[in-house]
Design goal:
Distance between the termini: 35 Å
Helix content: 25-40%
Strand order of the largest sheet: 3-2-1-4-5-7-6
Shape: globular
Radius of gyration: 17 Å
Structural class: alpha/beta
Strand content: 15-25%
Oligomer: single chain
Order of helices and strands: EHEHEHHEHHEHHEEH
Length: about 220
């Protein structure tokens, strides 16, 4: 008998990152964005390797996926390392590949104000904006830099009022909406400082990918 195909939602927020490790700040941002934007789900895209981050101190992919699964359990969040299957490394490639693979899903890219502040350093960042709508979540300490950034100067004419946030599937691209929630001070950096060997408990784990359903085992960084 053929395996039953997994049903996919109609609207999905994509939150990419290293998740090194994942923490409840990621969860708070995701759940607040779901409510604000009327999303069915959020997918956490655990990056095999962020081109803008140093590899030193980066835990193995399997450990980062496991930490994300633990934080996201019992929530409408799927944890995935799908980039390893797609063969993509950069966000512009990944988002285009996801749209091709899941043409019936409306995706919106979620990112913090810290990422907007350096968004112009991302490869083909304007193409990303033309691929799907973007929701930027305010983060304490980064909002001033984000609003004064090179990327925001370009985006300014494409910003949508927060009052229109639930109609994002109808927006003409590029389109960006600024969201503000109660600040969460937690960070992966602080967690690593407190427990630098946190990833060792996941050394032999083989988690199942939340989107593809495949087992993740010893994937190369």
């Amino acid at each position: 008998m053929a395996a039953k195909q997994r049903r996919h939602p109609a609207t999905v927020g994509l939150l990419g990152g290293s998740f090194n490790p994942a923490h409840r700040g990621h969860l708070a941002i995701s759940l607040n964005a779901m409510d604000a934007l009327g999303l069915d789900e959020v997918w956490w895209l655990v990056s095999p390797g962020n081109p803008l981050k140093m590899r030193t101190g980066m835990a193995p992919l399997v450990a980062r996926v496991m930490s994300a699964r633990m934080i996201a359990r019992r929530s409408p969040i799927r944890v995935t390392a799908i980039e390893t299957e797609l063969g993509t490394r950069y966000t512009d490639e990944t988002l285009k590949a996801l749209r091709r693979r899941y043409p019936r899903i409306d995706f919106i890219w979620l990112m913090g104000a810290d990422n907007l502040a350096q968004f112009d350093q991302w490869r083909n960042w304007q193409d990303i904006a033309r691929t799907m709508a973007i929701a930027v979540i305010a983060r304490p300490g980064y909002n001033k830099a984000a609003h004064g950034s090179v990327a925001m100067a370009w985006f300014r004419r494409f910003v949508r009022p927060a009052s229109q946030r639930k109609s994002w599937t109808t927006w003409r691209l590029p389109a960006l909406v600024l969201l503000r929630f109660r600040p969460d001070p937690r960070s992966a950096t602080l967690l690593r400082q407190r427990a630098p060997n946190w990833h060792r408990i996941h050394a032999h784990a083989t988690p199942r990918d939340g989107v593809t359903g495949r087992r993740i085992t010893s994937l190369k960084e």
